[in-house]
From TrEMBL:
Gene3D superfamilies documented for this protein: Homeodomain-like, Regulatory factor, effector binding domain
Alphabetical list of SMART domains matching this protein: AraC_E_bind, HTH_ARAC
PANTHER family: TRANSCRIPTIONAL REGULATOR YGIV-RELATED (PTHR40055:SF1)
PROSITE patterns cross-referenced by the UniProt entry: HTH_ARAC_FAMILY_1, HTH_ARAC_FAMILY_2
Domain HTH araC/xylS-type span(s) in chain numbering: 47-146
Signal peptide: none
MF terms (GO), sorted A to Z: DNA-binding transcription factor activity; sequence-specific DNA binding
Coiled coil regions, renumbered to chain: none
Protein name: AraC family transcriptional regulator
Amino acid sequence: MNTPALSPALAPGRVATLQPIQAEVLPPTGRTREHPALRSHHLRRMEQVLDHIETHLSEDLGLEKLADLAAFSPFHFHRLFLAWTGETLKEFVRRRRLESAAGRLRHCPNEKVTAVSLNCGFASPEAFARAFREHFGMTPSQWRSGGWIGWRTPANDCWRTKHFRVEVKRIEAREVLYMRERGDYASHAHSLWLRFIPWVDSLGLGGQPLMSVGLDDPSITPASNCRMDACVELPQEWNDPGLRTMRRQLPAQWAACLKFDGPAADIGGGWEALLNEWLPGSSFRLGEGHFFERYDRREGAPGGERVSCELCMPVEPA
């Protein structure tokens, strides 16, 4: 199950998700410098495993199965996974299941706690309740009833006094090249785009839409574990010059979209307006998928102090 994650924009003080490379070399990131043993082909396979985990939280995510998916021995996979994420596989899967469940408990009030626990991969409601209390210090029901308020950092609330227009539209499936960064969204987003945009331009993709995708909810996930993707949408029949890049297909989805044009520091309020002002009174509920920001380069590039973009939240009919 792919549970929605909030945009990087909700990080405190921030909103918001490859210079030319050789065929075997991926663009540099902080993680690869910290762990030089993780070669480019290792990184691609590890990120593919992380993407698989995100979309299969309700399924078996054991060591042997995921090691086989990555084409590593279980021993080698365990060692690389720990080096790459700073967590064992068991710790990572447990945390992502709990964080995904916490997001659904907060934003999907009509979804029963039992359904949330099973859809996020817990064997029983009792096991879920124990794990949730250990991680968040409260029961799932206490969290849903407002316990999350003391856990999160409030975003800029300037949108509460503004009139805003939300458009619900279908976003068609698209293929993207992407670069992933880990860490506090507020301090890492700018450097990510500084690396990503020149690489995109070098491939002749400068006119294509850009996307910032937040894979984790910064109001739930520790800042050091948050992941964001800088993406460029590929035109049909794009001729790959032979680079072994991070590339994936994004599924079609319905999204509630809000146009944002202003200081990057205010964009978190835009996400709060979608979630807490528009969604409760609409005929929609939160859908599957990730929140993302879509940028048209003709209107401005991401990563600056002032941004122009479209905030897109996955929805489905209630």
